[in-house]
Design goal:
The structure holds two protein chains of two kinds. Helices cover 84% and strands 0% of the residues of chain A. Chain A is built from three helices and no strands. In chain A, helix 1 (3-31) runs antiparallel to helix 2 (37-65) and helix 2 packs antiparallel against helix 3. Chain B is mainly alpha-helical. Chain B is 71% helix and 3% strand. Chain B has helices at 6-26, 31-41, 46-68, 76-99, 102-122, 160-177, 182-191, 197-221, 227-248, 254-276; strands at residues 142-145, 152-155. Classes of the chains: A mainly alpha, B mainly alpha. Chains A and B meet through helix 1, helix 2 and helix 3 of A and helix 3, helix 4, helix 8 and helix 9 of B.
C-alpha cells in the first residue's frame, strides 16, 4: 500500500468520525433544547464537507512529493473546482 | 424552510436507514429513494431534499472508501482524473438547480430514475470478464487481488474521453438531483472502458464524495441545507448501509434487484407525474 493511499484512508476515517460525532451530539442537544446545538450541527456539516476537500489537498501534497506533476496539476484543478462551488452561491444567490 | 421537530428528524433518520440499507444491498446509492421520499412524502422543497441526500452521499463515500483504501480496488489515479470532470459537472448542475423550477427538476428525476431501473434490469446477470493477467496496466490501469477467484485481475483503461464525458454527466445529475451518480459511471466504465465492475464501483464510490461536496457546498451557501435534517439522514444512512453490507454479503440479490427496479419505475412515474401537474 502506498503512503498516499494510507494517508487518504486516515483522512477519510477521521472526517467521518468527527462529523458523525458532532452531528449526533448536535442533534441530541437540539432536542433537549440545550445551547450550542446549531453551532455544533453546522460544525458537523462543515467537517463532512471538508473531508473530501482535505482528501484532495492531501493528494496534491502527495503527488508533489512524488514529483508527479501531471497528477499534482489535475488534483489542483479539482480543488479549484471545489472552491468555485463554494463561492458560486455568492454569485447565484437569487433565493437568498 | 421546514420546522425541525423530533418527529420529522426521527422519520428522516428511519428513511435514511432504509435507503442506505437498500443502497448498500444493491450497490446503488440510496439517494434515488431518499430524495423522492423527502420531496413527495414529507413535502420538503426539492432543493432541500437534494441537499440532505448529498450529505449522505458524502458520508457513505468517505466511510466506504476509508475502509477500502489501500486494498487496490479503488483506482485512485483514475478517480482523481475523472473527478476533474465530475466536479465540473457538479458545479454546473448545482448552479442550474438554483435556476430551474421544481417541476422541471422533478421531470428530470423521473426520466433519470427510469433509466436507472432499465440499467438495473439489463445488468441482472453481470458478466465476469476474463482478463488477461499479462496485460500491462499502463498509466491509468490497475491491478487487484480478487478474493473469489484467488487470482490477480489486471486491466487497462480504454476510451478515456468517454469515461470523462460520463463522469461530467454523472456529476451534473448528482448535484441537480441529490444522488451519487454511480449508476451512470459504473456501467460506462465497466462496459466500454475496460474496467472490471468491482474496481469501477469502488472507484466511483471514492469519487462521489468530491462530486457530492461540489454540489452540497452550493446548497449550504444558499441556505438550503438544513443541518439538523441532514444530520438525521446522515446518521440513519450510516446505520442502514452498515446493516445492508452485512446482509448483502449473504444475500443473492436477483429478486431484490427486480423488486428495486419495480420500485424505481413507480418512483419515476410518480415523480414525473408530479412534475407535469
Amino acid at each position: 500500500m502506498s503512503q498516499l493511499e494510507r494517508t487518504i484512508g486516515a483522512v477519510l476515517r477521521a472526517g467521518v468520525i468527527t462529523s458523525s460525532f458532532a452531528l449526533a451530539v448536535g442533534l441530541v442537544l437540539q432536542f433537549i433544547d440545550a445551547p450550542g446545538a446549531q453551532p455544533l450541527l453546522h460544525a458537523g456539516i462543515l467537517a463532512l464537507l471538508a473531508t473530501p476537500v482535505a482528501r484532495v489537498v492531501v493528494s496534491i501534497v502527495g503527488y508533489v512529493r512524488e514529483r508527479d506533476w501531471a497528477f499534482a496539476t489535475l488534483t489542483a484543478v479539482v480543488l479549484l473546482e471545489l472552491l468555485a462551488s463554494a463561492v458560486a452561491p455568492l454569485v447565484f444567490n437569487k433565493r437568498l | 424552510m421546514p420546522v425541525v421537530t423530533p418527529t420529522l428528524a426521527a422519520i428522516i433518520f428511519a428513511a435514511g436507514a432504509v435507503s442506505g440499507g437498500f443502497g448498500a444491498l444493491l450497490g446503488i446509492g440510496g439517494g434515488v429513494l431518499l430524495v423522492p421520499f423527502l420531496n413527495l412524502a414529507l413535502h420538503l422543497p426539492f432543493t432541500v431534499a437534494a441537499a440532505i441526500s448529498l450529505t449522505t452521499v458524502i458520508a457513505t463515500s468517505s466511510s466506504v472508501s476509508a475502509a477500502r483504501a489501500g486494498k487496490q480496488l479503488i483506482n485512485m489515479r483514475l478517480g482523481m482524473l475523472l473527478e476533474v470532470a465530475t466536479a465540473a459537472g457538479s458545479l454546473f448542475g448545482g448552479v442550474t438547480a438554483q435556476m430551474l423550477a421544481q417541476s422541471t427538476v422533478q421531470k428530470v428525476f423521473g426520466v433519470v430514475t427510469a433509466i436507472v431501473a432499465i440499467i438495473m434490469l439489463t445488468r441482472l446477470q453481470r458478466r465476469n470478464v476474463i482478463l488477461d493477467p499479462d496485460v500491462e496496466p499502463g498509466a491509468l490501469g490497475g491491478r487487484y487481488h480478487e478474493e473469489e477467484s484467488g487470482g490477480t485481475v489486471t486491466y487497462r483503461v480504454k476510451r478515456l474521453p468517454l469515461a470523462m464525458a460520463a463522469s461530467f454527466v454523472a456529476g451534473n445529475m448528482s448535484s441537480l438531483l441529490g444522488i451519487g451518480g454511480g449508476f451512470i459511471k459504473v456501467p460506462v466504465l465497466n462496459a466500454w472502458c475496460g474496467i472490471p465492475v468491482r474496481a469501477a464501483a469502488a472507484t466511483s464510490a471514492f469519487m462521489i464524495g468530491v462530486t457530492a461536496t461540489a454540489g452540497a457546498v452550493i446548497y449550504y451557501g444558499t441556505g438550503q441545507l438544513v443541518p439538523a435534517l441532514a444530520a438525521s439522514a446522515v446518521l440513519g444512512v450510516q446505520l442502514g448501509s452498515r446493516a445492508g453490507m452485512r446482509f448483502g454479503q449473504r444475500a443473492s440479490a436477483m429478486w431484490l434487484k427486480l423488486l428495486m427496479a419495480a420500485v424505481l419505475f413507480v418512483v419515476s412515474a410518480v415523480m414525473f407525474t408530479r412534475g407535469i401537474q
